Task: structure prediction
Amino acid sequence: MIHSEFSKNRVMYKFLILATIASVGGFHGWRTLFTNFAVECVGIDGFQMGVIQSIREIPGFLAFTVVFILAFMKEHVLSVLSLFLVGIWIAITGFFPSFTGIIVTTFIMSIGFHYQETVGQSLLTQYFSKSGVSLFLGKIRSVAAMTNICVGVIIWVMAVFMPMKYMFLVLGIAVLMIAAYMSKMKPHDESMPPQKMKLIIKKKYWLYYALNFLFGSRRQIFMVFSVFLLVGHYNLSVQWMTALFVIGNALNYFLSVPIGKCINMFGERIMLSTEYIFLFIIFLVYAFVDSYLIASIFYVADQVFFSFAIGIQTYFKKTADHEDIAPSTAVGFTINHISAVIVPVVGGLLWLYNWKIPFVFGAVLSLVSLYLAQKIVIPKESG
Result:
């Protein structure tokens, strides 16, 4: 069945793979450089970092506007245009080494990234079956991990002889080249059932919304404060951070597909519960174990557990009406980013008081997520 799905949707699958390479490679390359660039070249503090990251997440909060844009263009076209936006603004990031410059370049780049992520999730969920979507999500995550490994190695090499502003430039140009190639593809299947082009918020999807909200909080604590802990508190170099990034993605490359299979085998409730239990431990380690080596090890583990979040999307696929997928994915993405806009600023203020507090807060959120995961029920029907 999986092979027949791949054959039927071969062009769309290739399109999504390329979109993943461009958006994930560009964004995570940017993220690998960003904290060191912001601290070493601009000299920002914890609160300013929280402000920047909150502003970066505003486009994610506005992801619901995708629904209105799709009334005028197809999803794959919006995907390509979004990648052009990502590439341009990553490329010029290093040429604006100021607090204001970082805010502007980050915000506009983020518009493209979040639109692409919203559309990409929607297309993948639409084009693959209930049983197949977890495997294809696993494959996508695996490709993303390999992309990140390659980007990490390239950054490691470039860091030896190239200023950071030119490293941003190289990343941006690479994204633009892939987007240009994708613009010539025609992945859309005209026989696919049409999506509702209006905002849809249904009571039946409340758990999907809640899990997305909590995932947004967890993601920000990882992306903002665990990285800032390693760079700002332990003063680790860009090479060290790149090495941790590469190791985490190497593990994800091998584990993402098996994790997708485990979701089919054990179910979303068990897999997500496992993630939340370990996240509780990881956040407490960040807060109370004052060792850069241990923090580094748990940072790598933190990256691996991101793949378990596939279960949120597969749960939605197995419980949603097909025509609701595009608009509901946009709504879920927006809800995810409500917390993503709030957490960095609040966490940044708390960081100034005591850097341990954001991680204790993350541990509490993990317990709330664990409680909600127990309410996952998948209808018994064929995929």
Observations:
- The first helix runs from residue 2 to 8.
